[in-house]
Amino acid sequence: MIKLFRTSLAIIFLILMCVVFSACFDSLKNNTEVPFVVLNDDAGSFKADIYYWNVINNKIKETNENLYKIPQKIITNKESYTIFPIMWDGQKHAVLPSYLEASDKFKNIVEKADFYFEPKTIWGQDVKLVKSDEENRYKLTLIDDGKTDEKEITIPLHTFKGEDGKNHEATKCGTVTSVVKTSYGAAMLYPCFTLGGGKLFILKYDKTTESIKWQEVGPVKGNELSPSFPPLANHTATIGDNFIVRTLTNPIKVDAEKVEFKKMNIISDLQKKYAPETLNGEFPEYIDILGSYNDILLIGIPVHKAEGTELYIFAVKDDKLIGIMHRTINDIEIIDTAGNVVSKYNVPKAKTLIGENDVYFPNMNGMD
After folding, report:
1. Mean pLDDT in residue range 54-80
2. Beta bridge partners of 127
3. Which residues, other chains included, contact 110 with Cβ-Cβ below 8 Å and sequence gap of 6+?
4. CA distance 338 to 315
5. Which DSSP state fits 256?
6. Which residues have C-beta within 8 Å of that of residue 183, sequence separation ≥ 6?
7. What percent of the chain has pLDDT over 90?
8. Taking a C-beta distance cutoff of 8 angstroms, is the pair 214, 241 a contact?
9. How far apart (Å, rounded) are the C-alpha atoms in residues 197 and 245?
10. Taking the CA atoms of the chain, what radius of gyration do you get in angstroms?
11. What sign does the CA torsion over 102, 316, 225, 139 have?
12. What sign for the dihedral angle of Cα 172, 365, 59, 106?
């Protein structure tokens, strides 16, 4: 009887372990399937078709679904519009410009917003910052379990000494570009540019005391900010309380809690190893931040050729490379860490978009 009881316990234990490992495997699988959209031309009708990139098995899955459609008049005048989402978390929330047409399947997760070339709203995960007509005034919205908490906030004045040795008023030479929700309220990324160079600040909003504190990040030596490539929300990713910010060289990871930064030198190493052609032109290609998904950072490096624009995408998790995609003019290639093309998908670029980017990855940050 005791032997039978022990055997039964062992069988139950094995079943439980199988369930646990199966759940873990499913979780791992789901966490490593990165959604993205490609703008495809279907007989003159442009759609943002959804694909999934499995960074573990180096494959792409087509879905025959689209997130939204782009009216022909928008494509014809695309220089005056954005044809990508303002923000998209890849799962349950997307913000689209009001002129894009959400597909029926995803209408319940789509929020529409008016798009301005001088942004009024900065979007983040469960947080939103709306600029007021009054100088340095914003409406901050924090979302918890579907409940919203709105506060009117004022950015206090702050003076700093620039690289030119002069004192500068931060609110006169900078602005909020990204926001992340924190345990104490919110943290805002605030770059400033003067003739002497760029400075980066974190503004911490404490919801208990309803106060804002300025803290400088840096100095960011060797990874200078540039007014030509400012760290705007749609070119900044957030992972936890970290902002991933583009610079003139490697991106930097800014810890909004500790107010310190870390150089991401791995990115230029990846560029040299896997995409050396991006370094051979008259002007080296810039490193861009595409977004993030499930703590996977997505970095892009474009390649401008006579026949059109290509794009290398690096998937990085915990500062380690886990996937490489190459968007060419005729297809999408998946490259392994040995540098070999292991799979290729016939997804030619639309002629109208041949000279620009036509893929979009999840990014919980955006501005309209």
Report:
1. 91
2. 124, 142
3. 68, 94, 95, 96, 102
4. 15
5. T
6. none
7. 70
8. no
9. 16
10. 23
11. positive
12. negative
